[in-house]
Amino acid sequence: MTASRLATGGSAIDRSRPVRFSFDGATVDGFAGDTIASALLANDVAVVGRSFKYHRPRGIWGAGVEEPNALIDIDGASPNTRATTEPAREGLVAKSVNATPNALADRNAFLDRFSRFIPAAFYYKTFMWPDWHMFEPRIRAMAGLGEVDRSWVSSGPADQVNHHCDVLVVGAGPAGLAAAKLAAGAGLSVTLVDDQREPGGSLGYRDGEIDGKPAATWIEETLAALAAGGHLILPSTTAFGIYDHNLVGLNQRHFDGRRDTLWRVRPGKIVLATGAIERPLPFANNDLPGILSADAALSYLRRHAVLAGRRIVVATNNDSAYEVAAAVIEAGADVTVVDIRRDGMPAAPAKMKLVKGRTLASAIGRLRVEAVTLDDGSRLDADCVLVSGGWTPTIHLFGQAKGKLAWSEARAAFLPGDPVDGIAVAGAAAGAVSLSEVFTSAEKAVAAPGAQVPAAPRSTGPEATGGISAAWPKPGSKGRVWIDYQNDVTVKDVELAARENFVSVEHLKRYTTLGMATDQGKTSNLPGLALMAGITGRTVPEIGTTTYRPPFTPVPLASFAGGRVGQSMAPVRRLPLESAHRESGAVFQEYGGWLRPAHYGGRDADADRTIQDEARRARQSVALFDGSTLGKIEVIGPKAAEFVDFLYYNTMSTLKPGRCRYGFMLSENGVVFDDGVLVRLDEHRFVVSCSSSHVAAVHARLEEWRQDRFGCGAVYIHNATSQMATLTVSGPNARKLLETVGLGLSLADADLPHMAIGHGGYGGNEIRIARVSFTGDRSYEISIRADRAEPLWAHLREAGKAFDAVLIGLEALMILRAEKGFIVIGKDTDGTTLPHDLGSEGPRAKRQTEYVGRRSLFTEQASRGDRLQLVGLTVPQGEAPLPTGAHGIKRSDGRLRSQGFVTSSYESPTLGRPIALGLMECGAARHGETIEMQHLGKLRTATIAAPCAYDPAGERLNA
Amino acid sequence: MTRRYSALSLFKEGLAGQTGWKQAWRSPEPKASYDAIVIGGGGHGLATAYYLARNHGIARVAVLEKGWIGGGNTGRNTTVVRSNYYYPESVEIYGLAHRLYEGLSKDLNYNVMLSQRGMVNLCHSTAEMEIGARTVNAMQINGIDAELFSPEDVRRVAPIYNFSPDARFPVFGGIWQGRAGTARHDAVAWGYARAASRLGVDIIQNCEISDFIVEGGRCRGVQTTRGTIRAERIGMAVAGHSSVLADKAGFRLPINSYALQACVSEPVKPILDTVVLSPGTGVYVSQSDKGEIVIGGGLDRIPSYAQRGNLPTLETVISGLLEMFPIFGQLKLMRQWAGIVDVVPDSSPIIGESPLPNLFLNCGWGTGGFKAIPAGGTLLANLLATGKHNDISRPFDLDRFASGRLIDEAAGSGIAH
Amino acid sequence: MQLFPCPFCGPRDETEFHYGGDAGNTRPDGGDVPIDRWANYLYLRSNPKGTAREIWVHMNCGEFFVMERDTLTHKILSSAELGGEHA
């Protein structure tokens, strides 16, 4: 054993609650409060995973979100979980990633021996002959880390919370706690978030005394005071992104089976107290298991009572490692500190061996570190190497918010530069080292003009010092010196990139994949660009950093999706009479966002027969149809007539009150946007009946023109679509049926002719009846308050029995209207169809007043002779209907060319033959011509005809 | 020095510590004048320079890039390559690009990893299947390898899709293009840069245009942060920023700039072979060779030049993704970003001479510029070399907006109104 | 998530708004408008990088208004009722 659990101590673990789980099939014992990483370390599991490319054995490096190596798949959870942030749970089954069969004996480990032939970006230089497709499947199989569990089932949607506060403090280390305390003291509402389960940050395991109290006491008291003051404290919560206008995204974990929660926080101010991340040092084989961040080792020691080794080499270039050395000595380890510096170091603790002015040249060992050599060639045996290469302030969020960075030579790091509106940075993230500096920076972060901020906490214990001598990776390094552990990027790879002119930091990143792994380069980015600076003779700030992009750490996709799952993602609109239709056996389908009866009865194989039956019976006697989705937008006001004239292609102001007129609305590019019937209720009041799926868009268009062109005092628009149900009675017996119902008005044709409206009443409710027909038969559209429609619908059905009335769904209606050549916008037209393509030439030729889209009807393209025009299509006797979507084809110069296509096609039960509508080149002039049609490679013929196949004289409207 | 890329040269260099490789492209100081200047060092600009040199023998060419090459939309897209278009004009241009992509790795001696694992555009209703049939028939007539897929076919190529009966967007079938797929986006930029540089093209990075030199009503060169550079003809391929340069040149374009976001999950072992697009959710997704799930969706709805992702659109896109592939609910988002795209009223590119004579445009590709890089380069190179359109580029001239001869793919599929 | 100031409803999430185009893009009326003038109105856009003056509609209240904002930094500069502006 080398790494081990100490008999006592461990502020985070509860020894009375042992947990047992498995890793790569082996049993691991730990305690409640352990992370998987701390438990693995306590059990001396050195190799926890394999690297992405070379399958190098890798051990735990860190103790937090920066972990590049220790990724695991957990049964029933997310692949690529960081062992350093995942709590150990009883019975959990964990597996190393990218290793077969396991991390210790990975069968792809041989790849490392070929690494010289597969350096950074090697794949761009080979696999071209005979073809990439020959190689790709094997490369794909090798790539990726964890595995997606194909049997995984969601435990439910993730919660999403919108939250407001005066101050959002990110990070609950000393700076964050102090900032939260000060902001709360100034009377501001505070939300404090930390990505660890236990707030406290480095204070949780580093030495410190505040206001005369031990750090642990101060943390506890500060948190208690914040909680008592009603402030929100969110542990296990990562601020992963700062978005536009300083919206902060948080991801909160729960550890109780619930999915994570996404928080969208809109704070008055953001204080980033996000700390700093320890960097590795460059030496050959610095990726061997057993080589850890010194800070992580201290955290494991103090929080989990895990001593990372017995015979430890601490390699450092800065002061922070001395506290670690003292602590592991006290825990019983034999310690040698190798410091790059010759002088200026802190006092060495007792029993510590110190080698000054030296660095590690290489680590030795196969599956774990056994010894190190120094740059003077000497060798030190070790079962563990603790490394501190200095500190990289965690300024990702500041960078995301477009904050500029400033290089600090003294700290050997980028610090936040010019302030960003609404964002302050405090503590180690701002370059503070000692607790005194930390608290001063917290005070500054919270300060605001006029704010009564209480006195900052005082550091009363020994103070950390920040002495450092930069130790960046150097060109020409011997052996393989790792920079990005997970993606296997070495010093040689960066040199190769420079050699090949990938010297821009963004090119470096993309070419070598440095910093593109799941850790997003938290430990590797700065060393990588410092090396590039060294190679190219530039300074680090001249090289600059890559763009900081969210998320700071990977965030579950489910958090972003939230409750937008299944039907809640895009809810369908429902009819007021839906339950009545269900009782009638309706089969529902979605049409343009509405759930509507497709037909009544006759599921699956019987559907076609049912639809045919409905369509045939509708022509024989009378049909009842729910047309409630039809748009009903009222246009009211002194300029209403002028307004509808402008909005419609057809002149509407000549319409008499009580009458209706069919017309097109165009877009400004001339294309037919919608069609429908306009009703004039009185001089200054119209109802726009638009297509069901276009109601919102038509309404928006009317509003736009109203506000833009007509002014708000002259026209008023009211969308009454959902307030009114519209019940349609159509067929030769429609009037007879309605006369038995009693609607309080005369239905005589003299009083209510085709294209007129009448007003009546039913059950004490006003009704409006429009004689408008989409079937070609005598039709009455009865509009009534949606919530009072059910009794009328029931009455119509009851009364209909005497007339053999039939309920028809949308499918039968589609046949009926197609028999008449009536179009459906968006189905029988496309985004190029102009009104004259549909046979409506009059207004284009004659109208002198302005209307939407007018000028576009006279472009070169609009005037072409070969435009696609609406036609009917017939097929030779006995043949099946044309497939919708089939094209008419032409052959010229040996090439095939489309001359149009079928837009609607049905078997007509009334005509006893197939009918179809389509758009064909010069179609209006080609009636009678037989053309070749192609569908999915098969050819047949069709004959162009007039669109209207049934009752072309329109006699049935009054039959 | 090793110039040629091959398995053998890689092996030899492996023995030599990979120390013999030459620069992928040279970074010379800009000269005072060139035969042609291409503004924009993205895929289209670099391809233009390459084809100028290779197809037209014009190698005194400078590519001027304000940042680093491939740093715009070339390096920010979801890498889909396809040519399943509706109108013959589109088929000509995207078909040309697709064919050139198929030979590109060998042509450039740079593995751009064109991976033709197919793409399916799903249909979620009977009405969408009818439009799907119309579209497939049009493509087949125009010579594109399109097929109409049944639900079983879709299940075969994307078995992990949500086929549950209560799915919000059930599968009625789909439009399949087998030759579609993905390519490695950075490699396309770098491959063109390397090949162009070897033919003599100067690639000038960190060189921003401050103004155009106009003499006698014609464009004669540019003022840049690296000095004045003159040329006989100037082309621009600066997707996302076309209007900004147009403004400097004194004209406006039918373009709005919008952010298009993309994101990737953490890398996982192979789970999805093909590209899948759902019109219901607006989401398209593939899995990269590295294992990341690459996710794209609709545009952010606010005109913008900020190259950053935004939460509302991301949430919509991810919820759509999980509706399509519920098992991706176990994955985590690793990285999100955004590119700025030129959005044109008919969503087709603009290629041709600008209102400022001698300045030629290659812009307006919207969200689909990556797949068109070889064609965009070929056509702009032809314009710069000859001053004239060829049959493929002619329909895409700026004059189509006045003539009304728009090429609106969405209009053809009946969804744009 | 940007916050846009609706002149009628105050600051609201960007998702409640819809972009309406350049402010001041006046519609030329008439069947004989020169085609270039018409095409300019229909299609040409200023699309500035930086300060933009645009028409927006707040979909919740239905009101169109003018907003000035920076298209690069997303900073909002002003918003006002239409007052004779044309969408």
Strand content of chain A: 25-35%
Please tell me how large the radius of gyration of chain A is.
38 Å
Low-confidence stretches of chain C: none
How many helical elements of chain A? 21
What class would the helix/strand composition of chain C place it in?
mainly beta
Q: Give the end-to-end Cα distance of chain A, rounded to a whole number of Å.
A: 99 Å
| Biggest sheet features of chain C | 4 strands, antiparallel
Shape of chain A: elongated
Major sheet summary line of chain A: 7 strands, mixed
Level-1 CATH class name of chain C: Alpha Beta
Secondary-structure element series of chain C:
EEEHEEE
Gap between N and C termini of chain C: 25 Å
Overall geometric form of chain C: globular
Oligomeric state of this protein: heterotrimer
Number of separate domains of chain C: 1
What's the CATH architecture name of chain C? Answer: 2-Layer Sandwich
The chain-level structural class of chain A is alpha+beta
Mean pLDDT of chain A: 96
What does this structure look like?
The complex is a heterotrimer of chains A (959), B (417) and C (87). By secondary structure, chain A is α+β, with helices and mostly antiparallel strands. Chain B is α/β, with parallel strands linked by helices and 417 residues long. Chain B has two domains: 26-109 and 185-253 and 346-412, FAD/NAD(P)-binding domain (3-Layer(bba) Sandwich), CATH 3.50.50; 119-179 and 256-343, D-Amino Acid Oxidase, Chain A, domain 2 (2-Layer Sandwich). In chain B, helix 2 packs parallel to helix 7. Chain B is globular and about 65 Å long. Chain C has 87 residues and is mostly beta strands. Chain C has one domain (3-26, 40-86): 2-Layer Sandwich (Folate-binding fold), CATH 3.30.2270. In chain C, strands 3-4-5-6 form a four-stranded antiparallel sheet, with no helix packed on it. A two-stranded antiparallel ribbon of chain C has the order 1-2. Chain C is globular and about 45 Å long. The two termini of chain C are 25 Å apart. Chains in contact: A-B, A-C, B-C. Chains A and B meet through helix 2, helix 9, helix 10, strand 33 and helix 13 of A and helix 1, helix 5, helix 7, helix 9 and strand 16 of B. Strand 33 (555-556) of chain A pairs antiparallel with strand 16 of chain B.
